[in-house]
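Service request form, structural biology core

Requester: graduate student, group of Dr. S.
Request type: structure prediction, single chain
Budget code: on file
Notes: please return the result as structure tokens.

Sequence provided:
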Amino acid sequence: MALAQMPAASPRVGLFVTCLVDLMRPSVGFAAIRLLENAGCRVEVPETQTCCGQPAYNSGDRRDTRDIARSVVAAFAGYDYVVVPSGSCAGMIHEHYPALFADEPETLAKAQDLARRTHELTSFLVDVMKVERVGAAYSGTVTYHDSCSGLRELKVKRQPRRLLASVSGLTLKELPGAEICCGFGGTFCVKYPDISERMATEKADDIKATGADTLLAGDMGCLMNMAGKLQRQGSGVRVRHVAEVLAGVTDTPPIGEPKA
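Core staff response, request fulfilled:
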């Protein structure tokens, strides 16, 4: 991996794994570690980390959200950076944690400090570590879906595409409506299933229209939602987290497909 303007000292990075990666797709966590270590980071995975609290937050349960946030703040104290392979979880910490503690000055300062140190994975690699190329290879045509939180809260758009451009053998074909929600939206798909189903159907139609053989994105919730819809339609489009392709960790079955 070629690097530019590397920091003088290797930064100590805490990896926030996320619930869905931990429970459904551990390969994404390992891919993130590989990418970060290749970029010169010292990576640790705090054992005391928990959910970011987004499901409770989206449901209006501020008390439990604050309790969860306090645990996360404590777990990631002392790291130079906190990196998350998910725009939604990174957005929760970066954008919403400080507001949770507006009436608790001491905790507010800690939440603001954590927010400043928290980055989505591809944004951290490109914007902080100045990674220009990855040494991975992937044979095929891919299309990319921009998750809502990563795009709108963290401005993650060009960073994954810049890194994908350096993957040998990969062709990126842009997805019409790439910035339109896939219908997952955390608890949105549970609260409004009919609307979510229609959104997922339209997204799947757009994906298939590109002719790409692989769909990539940076959020497991979006990926699982789109993979499920594509499979129910009988599509052969493979679905992977962008970190897996960037790190060359593609020996596991695509998302939603059973292990051999």
